[in-house]
Amino acid sequence: MSNKIIFNADDFGISLGVNQAIVKAYNEGVLNSASLMVNQKYAKDAVKLHKDMPNLALGLHVNLTNEYSTAKAEDIFLLVDKNGKFKNGFLKLFLLSMLRPRKFKQQAKIEIEAQIQKAIKMGVNLSHIDSHRHVHMIPAVFDIFKEMMAKYGIKKTRVMNENLFMTLKTNKNKSYLFDGGLVKYGLLLLFSMINSYKSKTYFYTMLYTCKLSKDKFESVHIPKGYDAVEVMIHPSVTMTDKSHKEDIFDENVISDWRLKELETLTDKSILNNFVFNAEYPFLWGIYKKIESWWFKLNQKVRFVLVGGFNTVFAYMVFALLFALIGMPYLWALIVQYFITINVSVLTMRYYVFKSEGDFWSEFCKAWSVYIFMFVFNSLALSFLVEICRLNELVAQALYLVVSTILTYILHKYFSFMRKN
Predict the structure, then answer these.
(1) What is the distance between the alpha carbons of residues 37 and 66, in angstroms, rounded to a whole number?
(2) Residue 54: CB partners within 8 Å, gap ≥ 6?
(3) How far apart are the C-alpha atoms of 219 and 240, rounded to whole Å?
(4) φ/ψ of residue 111, rounded to 5
(5) Which residue(s) pair with 68 in the sheet?
(6) Contact (CB, 8 A) for 10 and 33
(7) Which of 7, 112, 209, 281 could form a Cys-Cys staple with 165, CB 3.0–4.6 A?
(8) What's the Cα-to-Cα distance from 184 to each of 12, 91, 176, 209, rounded to whole Å?
C-alpha cells in the first residue's frame, strides 16, 4: 500500500452548511473522504451529493449522543428518552458501559447496527466507520465496532495513535496545552491502549480538534510503520447554517473555526508539508528501540524483570506506609495493594504477556488473582509475624519470594491466557 494522505470530513449530513462545505472542499481542495451521519436531517441530501463525488470515500459517522436514534426507543432505553432522543454525552456513556455493561453493550449494538443497515439501504458502500464525539473509543463500544466491521466487511476504523512527542517536535502551535486538547488526547489514547487495536493509518489532529487552521500543517511527520495518515476535519459554510438556526442543535456547527477549516481544505499547498517514514524524536526513539529489544527477551525473563520492579515498588510502598507513616501492618498492606495493583496489571498485561485480548475481562481476572494473593498474603504475614515472631518487614520479604512464582502461573494460565 502506497503512502496516502486522507482528509476526512466528519458530520456529513448534519446541516446544509456542512454539506455545502464538503462539496466545495472536494471540488476545489484536498478533501477525499467523509463520514455520514445517517440519523441527521440532511443525510439524504448528503447521499445525493455524494453521487457527484465518485472519488470521495464515504463511511459511517456513528452517532450515540445527539438528536434521535435509528432504532426503536423501547429497545435502547439506556441511550434515549421516551421520544427516542439521545440523552447521554461521552462520559455518561462510558459510565453506563462500566455500571451496566451487559445492557449497555446490547443496546449500543442494536443502535450501531441499525445505523449501518440504514446507510447500506441508502446505497452507501461503507469504506470506514468512526463516530461522533469519539464514542467508539469507549472500550465496550469499540468491541461492537470490531464485531460490526467483521460482519459487514468494513475495512477501517479510526484509531487514536497520534504521537504527542512527534507533534511537539514538528509543530510550533501549542494551543492544545491550554484549551483542553491535551486532556482529551490523553483520555482517548488511554482508551486506545485498552482497545489494543493496531492500524497502519496514523491519526493526526486529535490535539487540534475543530481548530485546524493552516498553521497546524506547517510540518506533519508520520512515523515509520504507517502506510497512510488520516486528518479529521469539520468544515462548514457557517453563513448558511447561521441563516438556518432552526436546524442547529449544537453551537459548534456554526463556530467560525468551521469556516477556517474549510479554508484549510481548499489550500492544496498543505499536501507538501506531510513527511512519511519520519524518525521519532530522540527520547521516544530510544524508548521504541528499548521496547523492540525488550520483546525479544523470553517471557519468563520479562516476567522476572517486570515482577521484580512491581515487587520492589509494592514493598517500598508497604515500607513507607508501615515504617514511616506508622500504619498497622495489615492496614499498610491493604492500602499498598490498592495503590500498586493497577500498575501491576497494566505492566504485566503489556510488557510481559503482550496481550491483545478483551481488556476488561483480563483486568477483572487479574484483579481476582491479586485478591486471592491478598488473602494469601494476609494469612501468611499474620502467621509469620504472630506465630513465627518474625519482623514485619522480613516476613513480607519472605512471602514475596513464594508469591512471585505463584503470580506468574496464575497470570499465564488464567488472567492473560491466549486462546487458540
Answers:
(1) 10
(2) none
(3) 32
(4) -70, -45
(5) 85
(6) no
(7) 281
(8) 23, 12, 9, 9
Bridge partners of 202, per DSSP, are 229
Residues 115, 60 contacting (CB under 8 angstroms): yes
Q: Tell me how crowded residue 360 is: count the other CB atoms within 10 A of its CB.
A: 15
CB 191 within 8 A of CB 360: no
Phi, psi of 180 (to 5 degrees): 90, -5
CA nearest neighbour of 265 among 59, 27, 2: 27
* β-strands 4-12, 228-233 pairing: parallel
Cβ proximity of 232 and 8 under 8 Å: yes
How far is the C-alpha of 239 from the C-alpha of 245, rounded, in Å? 10
- Residue 47 gets the label, from left (phi > 0), alpha (psi -120 to 50) or beta, of alpha
DSSP string, 5-16: EEEEEEEETS-H
Rounded Cα–Cα distance for residues 352 and 295 (Å): 8
Q: How many of the other CB atoms lie within 10 Å of CB of 69? A: 23
pLDDT in tens, 135-155: 999 999 999 999 999 999 999
DSSP reduced 3-state for 33: strand
pLDDT tens-digit readout, 211-254 = 999 999 989 999 988 999 999 999 999 999 898 888 888 788 88
Number of helices followed by number of strands (H, E) in the chain: 14, 8
pLDDT of residue 175: 86
Question: What DSSP line would sit under 149-172, residue for residue?
Answer: HHHHT---B------HHHHHHH--
> What does the pLDDT read at residue 420?
44
Residue in this structure with the C-alpha cell 495518515, named with its chain if needed: 229
Q: Specify the residue for cell string 466491521.
A: 149
Q: How confident is the model over 345-374, as pLDDT tens digits? A: 889 998 999 887 778 888 889 999 988 988
Strand, helix or coil at 250? coil
Determine the distance from the C-alpha atom of residue 336 to the mean position of all C-alpha atoms in its chain, rounded to a whole number: 29
Amino acid letter at 349?
R
Q: For 222, which DSSP code?
A: E
Q: Rounded to the nearest 5 degrees, what angle is found at the Cα of 97, between the Cα atoms of 11 and 14?
A: 10
> What average pLDDT is seen over the chain?
91
What stretches of 171-281 show up as alpha helix (H) in DSSP?
181-195, 238-242, 256-265
Q: Strand pairing partners for 61? A: 130
Is the dihedral angle over the CA atoms 168, 172, 173, 174 positive or is it negative?
positive
